[in-house]
Amino acid sequence: MTRHLVVDTDTASDDAVALLMAVASPDVVLDAVTVVAGNVTLDKAVRNALFTLDFCGAGHVPVHAGLERPLVRPLSTASDVHGEDGMGDTGLVRAVGRAATEHAVDALVRLANEAPGERELVTLGPLTNVAAALLRDRQLLTKYRRTVMMAGSPDCVGNVTATAEFNVWADPEAASIVLEAPGERVLVGWNISRLQAVMGPAEHQRLSSLATPRARFVQEVNVKVAEYCARVTGLDGYDLPDPVAMAVALRPALVTESERVPVRVALGEELRGQLVLDHRRGAGGPGDVEVVWRVDEEAWKELLFAACAAK
Amino acid sequence: MPRKIILDCDPGHDDALAIVLAQGSPEIDLVGITTVAGNQTLDKTTLNARRVCTVAGITDVPICAGCPAPLVRPLVTAAHIHGESGLDGPQWGEPQVPVSDEHAVDFIIRTVMESDGDITLVPVGPLTNIALAMRKEPRIVAKVREVVLMGGSTARGNHTPAAEFNIIVDPEAAAAVFSAPWPVTMVGLNLTHQAGAGPEVVERVRALGTPLAGTVVELLHFFASTYKAAEGRPHPPVHDPCAVARVARPELVEVVDAFVVVETKGEWTSGMTVTDLTGRLGKAPNAKVATVLHREEFWDEMVDAIAALGQPGR
Fold first, then answer.
1. Chain A residues near residue B176 by CB distance under 8 angstroms
2. Interchain proximity A173–B69, CB inside 8 Å
3. Would you call A173 an interface residue with chain B, using a CB distance cutoff of 8 Å?
């Protein structure tokens, strides 16, 4: 059976790789891409999404521009991680095509209501668009089959502050709205990326040996991330948070360990964006989120290499 | 030229009077009514807007429902002031006007963006719809003529000692509205408390003898009872029409320029509109702040509007 995906993204390096994986997945149709400000400003993220889809031969997929700043806070981007253009500053990105006229929030609401319970949502950026849609319809996520989110760091090792992951930190109020909304939600945090999605020398070698445009694309858009990892997060190479979340969305069986738990977000300044998992007895309930603790690392990377192997 | 306004409201007794004044004043062209959760839940405030329009014979103004809850915080309502229905007092029949399919946020965006820059937003409830519209379409900020809102206070609050109800329900939305670079006028409690509906006002309305006037008298009667119980005020202040009056006849509401910021983090003071009337903070003014109501003329305007809406059935 063909599955239908909607992807919300602040398209920069790793988002682009995740989009490539979605497009390459034979049993999945990418129905729409909604774009939000985050890694880069909204206009750059839209440009990157359009370019990436075109590069993968999916220029027909509609791209909907969404909110250009968080709900409450000023915009903070991550150009220090992804480069000024969000794609490694290698001059790769060209302006291709144009965004659909429909706003991302409207698209998220429409796509859910057109086929309740059928489409799946994957979020790769700050949750501003999804939260804005939820402010209009609190039941929105119950109309998606499930929502897989690259969001937060459940083990409280952060990439933007000591304890916070960027997507949640950038718009913690939006993340809070999404984590408190009803609906089947799966959280793939930065812990998975840090521990199981690092592209080290061996993976680098593997991609190089593929020698396809897609493999080169993955390497090229992540050159700035590799520098950031060397400088800040101390990883041996670059990590791919959005692609591993996308892998979980595409292949739920990749998850080897997870738990259902209530997840909240710290909104105060000191711990802004830190996830708060409540393990007390009696705390759980129907609003629990499936938090992923481990994936099959070899298998998800094979999925990535397979997506890159296509000419 | 009548001023084009969108009235964003959460009816609510004083919201009902704001709707009547907006439609009944010759100085105002009411292009739409949008509803938000506040005084009561969204389903109730939307139903109430339809009830008021039905009784007032307002059939040509779209009513669009908006956000069911604040941006970030859980919804707080004001049943102790407005009753369980949000509009307790009169016996309401079935509303005869529909609610639009269009979401309030989209109606605001579309109306403003299609306009010649001549739309004034008059929010008299929590600012959730306005803030979400700003976020969804930031260009409305430059296109809106001005925002004249009922909310806040230069001094004390009503829902808490520091905060007025509309602001405390959604302080994050209010902070967004006050910090955006559009002309904002704050018609706060310090102004609206000058608009108490005393017995002489009630008698003037009653004397109009129309069904709408009868409904307004019943609304004011209920409003007086809850305000007396809640705040010990002899005459209930009709907050929301004061903002409409400022647009209809600016000379009725005197203003001063001041820097206003919404406290969103205070332990005891969240939702406070911190108003720097003396320039202590050295910040450039970002709002006009209403200070003095010309009470007699205000009530003349209000009574004239009730009379102007004639005698539609109820």
1. 72
2. no
3. yes
Kindly provide the ipTM of the predicted complex, given to two decimals. 0.86
A71 closest CB neighbour out of B103, B135, B138: B135
Query: Cα–Cα distances in Å, from A83 out to A92, A207, A224, B59?
Result: 12, 22, 6, 55
Taking chain A (311 residues) in runs of 10, the rounded mean pLDDT of each run is 95 97 97 98 98 97 98 94 94 94 98 97 98 96 98 96 97 97 98 97 94 95 92 92 98 98 95 96 91 98 95 71
Homologous superfamily assigned to B3-308:
Ribonucleoside hydrolase-like (3.90.245.10)
pTM for the structure as a whole: 0.92
CA nearest to B44, candidates B6, B78, B74: B78
Q: Cβ A106–B106 below 8 Å, yes or no?
A: yes
Q: What is the chain B residue with the closest CA to A177?
A: B72
Of B72, B136, B138, the CB nearest to A173: B72
Query: Is any Cβ of chain B less than 8 angstroms from the Cβ of A310?
Result: no
CA distances from A125 to A10, A150, A241, B63, B94 (A): 5, 7, 10, 35, 46
Catalytic residue numbers of B read: 239
Task: Examine residue A57 and say whether the peptide bond preceding it is cis (omega within 30 degrees of 0).
Answer: no
- pLDDT tens across B247-292, in order? 999 999 999 999 999 999 999 999 999 999 999 999 999 999 999 9
- Domain assignments of chain B as residue spans, ordered by start: 3-308
